[in-house]
Design goal:
Bound molecules: zinc ion
Strand order of the largest sheet: 2-3-4-5-6
Largest sheet: 5 strands, mixed
Radius of gyration: 24 Å
Number of domains: 2
Shape: elongated
Order of helices and strands: EEEEEEEHH
Number of strands: 7
Structural class: mainly beta
Amino acid sequence: MIKLKLRLEDLKSGLNEFWASYTDEDLDLKNQDFELVNKLDLYIRAVKRGRNVELTLEATYTLRLTCARCLDKFNKKFNEKETYYIKIGKEPFFEEKSLKERDIFTQFIETDEIDMVPFVREIVILSVPMKPLCKPDCKGLCPVCGVNWNYETCEHMNQPKVDTRMAKLLELKSKLGM
Ligand SMILES: [Zn+2]
Ligand SMILES: [Zn+2]
């Protein structure tokens, strides 16, 4: 069963559990520099106490990423768990809040429906590594001829590594006649 939104009145007091699955379209994840492979499976644990909901989301999914070194595409599995503290209602003015309520983790939702999509979307986007690697020891591409050093060799492999920034600086210096 796909549950995109949880209605507060449909939740019973205490523990509620749901399972859902989402496509990249459901999560508005098209046009990213990664792809969601198949569907994302979500386990939703919602503990309701009055107008407070402690929401724990556990997402299982596979992303197709591009290696930052060799530019190959590869699949990586993820299992991410996150807890959110939600209060249904208007956020009180700062002065009215007690110290306890001034909790940066509490999110206020003004409608009585909790939409899962923004939470799940955030979980996925934050899980993508800054520099994804197809394997920890990926050898990358040759900076001179571009062959993939994971599969091929070339005559540049054993040359001393030239710092490209330094090379550019030297080039600039020779152009300026320094
Ligand atoms: Zn790689
Ligand atoms: Zn080469």
